[in-house]
Structure formats: structure tokens, C-alpha cells
Design goal:
420 residues; seven-stranded mixed beta sheet; 13 strands; 45% helix; globular; binds glutamic acid
């Protein structure tokens, strides 16, 4: 980890750059530099061994100018206030770039789910939900899964909130189990959006999907589904990794076999996976492979000033939030690496969260085909718009995405005017 890394500063830098191109004054953007609400909570939990442990959690609403705050809940040992602030702000601009009627929020609990039992995770989830209950609700702030959480955790959140209200509230969280009003297609949505985006950028650059080489860092929900769908598209996935390290085969990996192995048991890690012809590599070696497309799908700050000059991929599609630190962004842009930014590339998850919420508040349900089609109908035009504005301004795709997003947020703020 680099010293002095503050992801919130990265967000402010790119917002300022976009605002300057758009001709906005300091005063126009002053409000969006400050998250609207930051809540820190203590979460006492009776652990399986009978002791009491107090976990620390956060919920931050960066903006509600364009609609209710929206964004996931992260359970991870590295969660901290600046990270949650940055993640909340990225949600604001992500929802704006795909033009869904939400602001941005994020939450997190400092904990390591891999070291906790299901009972302990459920207890953390319930007490955390109760602690942030004054802030959340279908019209205020709608959590969803993020790193370390999943549909099961969302089901517990929905139940806790509903018990506190005294009636069933489906729309308080998205990414729920299907039985509780979860949207068909939500589980795959982020990876599906990354796949659509990857195909779009390849097409713009005159490249085929067939046999194009790809490396994917991270085999969580986003990385694994992206690898599955890109493999189905005929792309050659030559390397994947998880927390235990990576595997590499220049002839292409057997993605279905890898995914089957990983899904069998949550304790299964790639370091114990066997396949003929594979070489073991580290996460940092994976990032530096000579591939056409690199897909960081893990955490922030993976590509930073220490390794940026060694990155050989021609295209990086940011499936994770904030995987490239801003100094690394400058180094890669100077080298001509094409980067599809997180707020566009991984927006598929929140888009289908929006579909889930729309279905919940209307008490209707859509088919998976219809969800997938509606997702494509948002992702493809959003990509085209970002591409076009980047070309017009001779800017990177990241700047282009922020030109669209910052304008939407600032104009919404201006239209509402400052209260009172
Ligand atoms: N955690 C996901 C993200 O970072 C999804 C958020 C949501 O669906 O609200 O985009």
C-alpha cells in the first residue's frame, strides 16, 4: 500500500478537472465536495466464544440532489472513513453517468467475514442495520451488496428494518434474495455491465472479442461473473486471481471449471486449484501481464505510482471501484493506455438495483430477459455518450464520464437552489 493514499482526494481531483472544462465556478461545485451526512456507529456483538466485540461501522450519504442516496455495504478489514466517503461519492457520479434517479451513498463495517461464523455475520448485520436505520429507507437511502456482503446479508438487513417498522419493507435494500423481492439478473448485473462495456470498447478500437487476451484480478461476485461472461463471448482469459494469488495459462484458462471449484465452498481458494498447464503468479504479476485487456475487479489503489509504469495492457476496464490511483492514471494516460472508468464500467450493478427498487415499490416483477435487455439499453447509450464527449474534448474516458456526471449533479443542485 502506498503512503498517504486518500481515495476521497482522488475523487475531488477528477471532479475539479471536469468542473473546469465545464466552466463551473468553485461555488458551483463547493457543495458536492462535502458528503451530506456521515454516520459512525458502534456495533456490539456477542461472539460465538461468549465474548463481546464492538465493531465499527459507517453509513455516508454523499449526495441526495438527484434522488435517494444509493450504494452498497462493505464488510472488510480495511474499511475506513475516507474509503467510504470516496465510495459514496463514486456512487453519486455513477448514478448520474447512467442517469438513474439516485444520489450516492455507501456503508461499511470494519470486519473480516472470512474469519467470522454465519451467526456472527448475521449479528453484525442486524445491529448495524438497527444503528443506521434512522438514515435508510426506500425514499431516503437504499443499501445494496458490496465487497464482503451478498444477497443473504441483504435479506437480513431487509428483515431487521422491516421488524423495526412493524411491516414488510421490500424497497429498503436491493440485491436481496429473489424470494424477498430481489430482481432476477441482479446477482450477475455488475459483471454483465462490465462485459457489455468491454465489448463496446473493443468495437470502438476495431478489435474482436474472439481470442482477445484478458486478465481478471479478483474472483468475487464481479470478477467471477465478468470472467464467465467474457469467456462465453470467446475471449481468452489467461489469468485470474483472488486473495490467495493468481493462476496463469497463456493458452487460456478453463473458466467454467475454476468457477465451479470456487463456488463449491466459500473457503476454496485459487492457490489450491489444480489444472494442467497453469502457472502460479502473484496479484502484482497478474496486473503486469502482457494482455490486451486488464480487468481489476478487486479493491481500490491496486494500480498506483509504484506499478503503473509496468502495466502492459492496452485497455483497462475498471470493474472495481477506484482500482487506479490518480498518479497512476496520469502515468497510464501518458502511455496511451485506454481506461474505461469505474463509474461507467461497473454501473450495471446499481442499474439493476434501480430496477429492483422500481419493481419493489410498484409490487411487480420483471423477467430476467427483460432486466438484461433494459440493462443493455442503459449501458450501451451511456458508453456511447461518454465516448462521444471524450472525443469532442480530446479527453480521457474518465474525464468524459465525469463531464456528463458532474454536469447532471451540479445542474440538479442549481435547479433545487440552496435551502433555505
Ligand atoms: N456496490 C455496488 C457498486 O459499487 C452496487 C451498489 C448498488 O447496487 O446500490 O456499484
Amino acid at each position: 500500500m502506498e503512503q498517504h493514499y486518500n481515495p476521497y482526494d482522488n475523487v475531488l481531483k477528477v471532479v475539479k478537472e471536469a468542473a473546469d472544462i465545464l466552466g463551473y465556478s468553485e461555488s458551483d461545485i463547493e457543495a458536492i465536495k462535502h458528503p451530506e451526512r456521515e454516520l459512525k456507529v458502534a456495533i456490539p456483538v456477542r461472539m460465538d466464544n461468549g465474548t463481546t466485540h464492538v465493531f465499527e461501522g459507517y453509513r455516508i450519504q454523499h449526495s441526495t440532489s438527484r434522488g435517494p442516496a444509493k450504494g452498497g455495504i462493505r464488510f472488510h478489514p480495511d474499511v475506513n472513513l475516507d474509503e467510504v466517503k470516496a465510495l459514496a461519492a463514486w456512487m453519486t457520479f455513477k448514478c448520474a453517468v447512467v442517469n438513474i434517479p439516485y444520489g450516492g451513498g455507501k456503508g461499511g463495517v470494519i470486519c473480516d467475514p472470512s474469519q467470522l461464523s454465519e451467526t456472527e455475520i448475521r449479528a453484525i448485520t442486524r445491529r448495524f442495520t438497527a444503528a443506521i436505520a434512522p438514515l435508510i429507507g426506500p425514499e431516503q437511502d437504499i443499501p445494496a451488496p458490496d465487497v464482503g456482503t451478498n444477497a443473504t446479508v441483504m435479506g437480513w438487513m431487509m428483515d431487521t428494518y422491516s421488524m423495526m417498522k412493524g411491516h414488510c419493507v421490500h424497497g429498503v435494500v436491493t440485491g436481496k434474495p429473489i424470494e424477498l423481492g430481489g430482481a432476477l439478473g441482479r446477482n450477475e448485473a455488475t459483471g454483465r455491465g462490465v462485459t457489455l462495456t468491454t465489448k463496446n470498447i473493443l468495437r470502438k478500437m476495431g478489435l474482436n472479442t474472439t481470442a482477445t487476451t484478458v486478465a481478471v484480478q479478483g474472483m468475487g461476485n464481479v470478477g467471477s461473473i465478468t470472467a464467465k461472461l467474457l469467456h462465453k463471448e470467446g475471449m481468452k482469459i489467461i489469468a485470474v486471481s483472488d486473495v490467495s494469488g493468481g493462476i496463469y495459462n497463456p493458452d487460456g484458462l478453463n473458466i467454467p471449471a475454476i468457477l465451479e471449484y470456487l463456488s463449491k465452498d466459500r473457503k476454496n481458494l485459487l492457490k489450491n486449484y489444480e489444472e494442467e498447464g497453469i502457472q502460479r503468479i502473484s496479484n502484482s504479476e497478474l496486473l503486469q501481464l502482457d494482455v490486451k485487456v486488464l480487468i481489476p475487479a478487486a479493491l481500490e489503489n491496486q494500480i498506483n505510482s509504484l506499478n503503473a509504469k509496468n502495466i502492459k495492457a492496452d485497455i483497462i476496464v475498471e470493474a472495481a471501484n477506484g482500482p487506479i490511483a490518480s498518479e497512476a492514471d496520469d502515468i497510464l494516460n501518458a502511455k496511451g493506455t485506454v481506461i474505461v472508468p469505474d463509474i461507467l464500467a461497473n454501473a450495471g450493478g446499481v442499474v439493476v438495483s434501480y430496477f429492483e427498487w422500481v419493481q419493489n415499490i410498484q409490487s411487480v416483477s420483471w423477467t430476467e430477459e427483460s432486466v438484461n435487455e433494459k440493462l443493455k439499453n442503459i449501458m450501451d447509450p451511456a458508453f456511447e455518450a461518454v465516448w462521444a464527449i471524450s472525443q469532442q474534448n480530446h479527453a480521457t474516458l474518465r474525464t468524459g464520464a465525469y463531464l456528463i456526471a458532474v454536469k447532471r449533479v451540479v445542474e440538479a443542485k442549481k435547479a433545487r437552489a440552496i435551502w433555505p
